[in-house]
């Protein structure tokens, strides 16, 4: 039995609904169902009654009680081990969002040093969806995510920074000379965006905002991360992307703001609502008190 499987079961036992549990876990429903079946083979019997509705069997009720105890004990064991591994110095495990403004992790590091002298910060990169999974699996203490993001009740979040997005395109694009761009000029343009599953809330919000300002873009069949999009666009004068002004001046690209319809991306810090580690709680207090959206 793997801890990940045990976490999956505990969430499913709390929801008693495969789709809702899979959404909480940021995995697919078939994946969740498969892992529960593996777990049932391991324990030698059914943990759930699946029809007509999901219910725990007596064995499932026992595993739920014991599983929660195991997960709590493992969390505490890992915290104690990490403290011992660094001579008792506190460690902050930060989920570093791909493409985050460079100043933000630097500022978090400064606040960490001020709040907890001698503390060490360990970074784990990934998308918004990755960071939520890392939090759920106790692989990070705090995670940077792009809002809006719909988090389960067991998580809390707070906005810490904002950035304006504009349009980035090849310097050979027909709209490259416009400054700024009117949103209606984007109608019919192929927009290369990140995969929806990596940050569904932001993905949908950006498309709604563009449409609301008359920018009837055509979503590209090609979905890719920000760095890949910037690498592809110089050779695609027939497509556009969205980026902050940090993309301005990159070789082969131009960046243009949108007139009267600024697109804003909000960065938030997310954490488990019940913080057991006093060191993490102290840092969280410092972070939420001093960081605010620009």
Structure description:
- Helices cover 40% and strands 24% of the residues.
- The protein is of the alpha/beta class and 294 residues long.
- Strand 3, helix 5 and strand 4 (120-126) form a beta-alpha-beta unit.
- Helix 1 (3-15) crosses helix 3 (29-43) and helix 1 (3-15) packs across helix 4.
- The longest helix has 28 residues, at 58-85.
- The chain is globular, with a radius of gyration of 22 Å.
- Belongs to the LysR transcriptional regulatory family.
- InterPro entries: LysR_HTH_N (IPR000847), LysR_subst-bd (IPR005119), WH-like_DNA-bd_sf (IPR036388), WH_DNA-bd_sf (IPR036390).
- Keywords: Activator, DNA-binding, Transcription, Transcription regulation.
- This is LysR substrate-binding domain-containing protein.
SS content category: alpha/beta
The helix/strand series, from N terminus to C terminus, equals: HHHEEHEHEHEEEHEHEEEH
Distance between the termini: 46 Å
Whole-number average pLDDT? 87
Radius of gyration: 22 Å
Question: Total strand count, please?
Answer: 11
Query: Poorly predicted ranges (pLDDT <50, ≥5 residues)?
Result: none
Count the DSSP helices.
9
The best one-word shape is globular
The portion of residues forming beta strands comes to 15-25%
Family: Belongs to the LysR transcriptional regulatory family.
Organism: Nocardia implantans
Domain HTH lysR-type: 1-57
Protein name: LysR substrate-binding domain-containing protein
């Amino acid at each position: 039995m793997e801890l990940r499987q045990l976490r999956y079961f505990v969430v499913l036992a709390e929801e008693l609904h495969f789709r809702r549990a899979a959404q909480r876990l940021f995995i697919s429903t078939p994946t969740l169902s498969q892992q529960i079946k593996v777990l049932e083979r391991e324990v030698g019997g059914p943990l759930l009654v699946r029809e007509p509705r999901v219910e725990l069997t007596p064995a499932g009720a026992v595993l739920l009680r014991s599983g929660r105890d195991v997960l709590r004990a493992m969390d505490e064991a890992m915290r104690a081990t990490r403290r011992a591994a660094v001579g008792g110095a506190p460690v902050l495990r930060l989920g570093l969002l791909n493409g985050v403004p460079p100043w933000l992790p630097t500022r978090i590091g400064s606040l960490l040093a001020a709040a907890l002298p001698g503390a060490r910060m360990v970074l784990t990169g990934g998308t918004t969806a990755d960071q939520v999974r890392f939090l759920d699996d106790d692989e990070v203490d705090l995670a940077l995510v792009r809002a809006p993001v719909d988090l389960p009740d067991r998580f809390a979040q707070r906005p810490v920074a904002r950035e304006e997005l504009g349009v980035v395109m090849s310097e050979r694009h027909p709209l490259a000379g416009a400054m700024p761009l009117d949103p209606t000029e984007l109608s019919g343009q192929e927009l290369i965006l990140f995969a929806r599953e990596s940050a569904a809330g932001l993905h949908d919000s950006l498309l709604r905002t563009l449409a609301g300002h008359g920018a009837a873009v055509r979503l590209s069949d090609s979905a890719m991360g920000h760095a890949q999009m910037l690498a592809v666009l110089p050779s695609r004068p027939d497509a556009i992307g969205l980026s902050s002004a940090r993309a301005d001046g990159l070789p082969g690209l131009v960046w243009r703001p949108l007139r009267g319809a600024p697109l804003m991306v909000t960065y938030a810090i997310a954490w488990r609502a019940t913080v057991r580690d006093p060191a993490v709680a102290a840092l969280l207090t410092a972070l939420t008190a001093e960081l605010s959206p620009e």
